[in-house]
Q: What sequence folds into this?
């Protein structure tokens, strides 16, 4: 499989503080890569390094054979990278309909972005005229994922979309991620529901204090007890029924 996105020796500093140290990572075309690690491990910073929201101290980001680092975020987005950030990636004062309509790069053949967005999460259909900020937390995440679906990125990066949501909602969000992944979208996933992430992922990168400690397929990680060592008992026991 060819690499869609590659980080090569990436170091990121915030002030003098090192958030990523010499990180190399590969998202093969058409795969789901999960990025796991404790709080502060550097997961969000890794996504920001790819989408151009932080400056690299060292290293490169290669996307589809070209360098992305140093480009402005809107040019990186235009290349096909969509970052659903921590929190809610929506415009709260606009209606649900407006949030869907303003997705700038629509899936080829999508005549009607609103219809396409409602297709993936029918619950949004009943909320089209409502301000997005007045939706429940779960509905806001459905809206941010359906915007991602309409945009049809080549690389979808999702940061802790399940934060603070009930397991049944998380299962629904993961169902949508699974269908985007099986339609061929490459996904880089940061997630606290480790088991749900492992179920979806082809490869797992485990970070600790800004450094890569392991790259493996999900089965290997489970066997070797590495997750428990780096993430703790609680994280590895969190369950959602993602089917
Ligand atoms: N804007 C910021 N300014 C200063 N330090 C930051 C900032 N964002 C993150 N950090 C620090 O960088 C490290 C990595 O953070 P982050 O990438 O958010 O980790 P994670 O997403 O894995 O929890 C942490 O030590 C965090 O405190
Ligand atoms: Mg984070």
A:
């Amino acid at each position: 499989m060819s690499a869609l996105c590659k980080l090569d020796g990436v170091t990121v500093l915030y002030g003098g503080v090192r958030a990523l140290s010499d990180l190399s990572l590969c998202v093969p075309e058409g795969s789901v890569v999960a990025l796991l690690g404790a709080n502060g491990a550097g997961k969000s910073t890794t996504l920001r390094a790819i989408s151009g929201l932080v400056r690299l101290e060292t290293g490169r980001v290669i996307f589809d054979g070209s360098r992305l680092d140093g480009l402005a975020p809107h040019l990186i987005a235009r290349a096909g990278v969509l970052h659903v950030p921590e929190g809610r990636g929506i415009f709260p004062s606009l209606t649900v309909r407006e949030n869907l309509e303003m997705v700038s790069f629509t899936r080829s053949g999508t005549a009607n972005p609103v219809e396409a967005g409602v297709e993936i999460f029918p619950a949004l259909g009943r909320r089209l005229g409502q301000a997005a900020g007045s939706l429940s937390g779960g509905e806001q995440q459905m809206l941010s994922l359906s915007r991602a679906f309409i945009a049809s990125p080549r690389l979808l990066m999702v940061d802790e979309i399940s934060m603070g949501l009930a397991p049944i909602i998380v299962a629904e969000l993961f169902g949508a991620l699974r269908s985007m992944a099986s339609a061929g979208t490459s996904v880089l996933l940061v997630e606290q529901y480790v088991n749900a992430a492992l179920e979806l992922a082809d490869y797992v990168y485990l970070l600790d204090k800004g450094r890569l400690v392991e790259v493996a397929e999900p089965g290997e990680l489970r066997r070797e007890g590495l997750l428990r060592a780096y993430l703790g008992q609680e994280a590895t026991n969190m369950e959602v029924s993602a089917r």
In short: Residues 87-152 form one domain. Residues 167-182 form the longest helix (16 residues). Residues 137 and 165 are 7 Å apart (CA to CA). The chain has a mean pLDDT of 90.
